[in-house]
Amino acid sequence: MMRETILSRARLVAILLPVALLGGAIGSQYLGGLIPCEMCMWQRWPHLGAIFAALAAIALRGNPPMSAVFTLLAALGIATSGVIGAFHAGVEYGWWEGITTCATTATPAPGQSMLDTIMNAKLVRCDVAPWDLFGISLAGFNAILSVGGALLIFALVRTWSKAA
Questions:
Q1: Distance between CA atoms of 117 and 81, rounded to whole angstroms?
Q2: Higher pLDDT residue, 153 or 102?
Q3: Of 3, 68, 78, 152, which one has the fewest beta carbons inside 10 Å?
Q4: For 15-49, what is each residue's pLDDT tens digit?
Q5: How far, in Å, are 4, 9, 10, 153 from residue 53 at the CA level?
């Protein structure tokens, strides 16, 4: 495999994976009606950062060393989201305790007291998976796909760097 092809594949994974996962999360929220908890939102930010890093890597493809650096930054963002997803999945499966502030963004309407707003606000719990497939929650899928994808990107960039 040509050296540039290896780096191109790493960049391709680095852009497609976070776009797909972030798109899936946003789609499940706005099309599927699954309201994200606080930890769900935490998993989105590293994917957004990874998308920007991958776009920089693509823009810098004429400068392979810099492109590789930004590809690795994208992989780091993807891996970060995966680690947060693994923690969140562990909370959902009851393996450990999660954060205690999960989560509502209640703000009082004009003429309504804060207490009434809080009492009527929908609470989205981080320790309850709103959806799963084969016993794997969305956070679990994010963990598996993100960590696996990041490892693939790291391996591709390593292979590229060692190729003559």
A1: 32
A2: 153
A3: 3
A4: 999 999 999 999 999 998 888 888 888 999 999 99
A5: 18, 15, 12, 13
How many Å apart are CA 74 and CA 80, to the nearest integer? 10
Instruction: Write the pLDDT tens digit of every residue in 90-145.
Output: 888 888 887 765 555 556 667 777 677 666 666 677 777 777 779 878 888 999 99
C-beta separation of 78 from 146 below 8 A = yes
124, 92 contact by CB (below 8 A):
no
Buried b (16+ CB within 10 A) or exposed e, 66-95: ebbbbbbbbbbbbbbbbebbbbbbbbbbee
Q: Do residues 76 and 12 lie in contact, with contact meaning Cβ atoms separated by under 8 Å?
A: no
Question: Cβ(81)–Cβ(21) under 8 Å?
Answer: yes
- Domain positions in the chain are 3-162
The upper half-sphere exposure of residue 28, i.e. CA atoms within 13 Å in the direction of its Cβ, equals 19
Strand partners, 132: 137
Would you say 85 and 43 are in contact if contact means Cβ atoms under 8 Å apart? yes
Distance (Å, whole) CA 114 – CA 125: 20
